[in-house]
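Ticket #4471: structure export looks truncated?
Reporter: QA, pipeline team
Priority: medium

Steps to reproduce: submit the single chain below to the structure queue and open the exported record.
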Amino acid sequence: MSPHRISPVRRVDRSERGAALLTVLMLVAIIAVLASAALEKLRLSTRLAGNAAAGEQVRAYAYAAETMAVTRIGSMLGANPKRVTLAGGWSDRPFGLPLPGGGFATARVRDGGNCFNLNGLVQRTSDGVYATRGEQRPVFVRLMRLLQVPVQVAEQIASGATDWIDTDQDQQAMGAEDGAYLGRDPSYRTAGTLMSDPSELRAVAGMTPAIYTTLRPWICTLPIADPAPINVNTLLPEQAPLFVMLLPDTLSVEAARQLILKRPPQGYGATSEFFKGAALQGAADAGAEGQTAVVSKWFALDIDVTLGTTQVQERALIDATRLPARLVSRQWGEPS
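Actual output as written to the record:
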């Protein structure tokens, strides 16, 4: 029987050893990249989940501030339903809501009806359509003139805004219906219904960013097809143009400001009392008195919440046309 022969050990070439080492290193690099990507996704997911939770938490605190504001407005109107004044310093005064962890929520309430309601340019008819309210267009034009908007541009914007809201396609003089916008790039159509936000005015023919910036503090879009009655008890001296716009060029802004400054601390019990002072300056106007009030029915609410590194801002509108008052719209972020 022949002895068992052992095969000689095969020597591995250096180039093969180098290739194997390179392969191992490449595998290690690929695994490291995959692990890094997985960890980054995990960190991102964790961060997003944390941000979402924090966002929901601060929004919940904002809702709590809403409830506090609505309750305060209801209490104020319940105590004196026939007169709303600035007594007590409630207007634009911040009231806080301390939060756990050092956070804080601040809310401010002010009269939300002392403005020109763009939706008052139309009226709702018995068959449910929006038709032009002719007497409001000149009021809007006067407001723009008082704010130094050129007359011709003001006429175009007022007519265009009315055409934007009304239901029909009958273009007013200097106005614009669908045909004026379909040729633009991009093209669009008029709304044919009430504006939901003042920023819609930016799409109206004749409007420019500069004019919109000028008009924004003076306009609003209440969810009603009626003019916003100006409360002569809460109108601020710097808001005098909102009263002057109601009159056919018979009172200066400075004269109106002086009338507001002479207002008694307890306010007026009736608009006729305020107009007696205006009449002394030759500015009596029955139509204007019908667009004023001594009670506020709409309130604007601003809420700012900070919790750690998370912040949220809310702008809301409260309807107090009947009690209990209720919040009818909210917008997150800076006003447009």
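Status: closed, not a bug. The export was complete when the record was re-opened. Leaving a note from the reviewer for reference: The CA atoms of residues 74 and 324 lie 6 Å apart.
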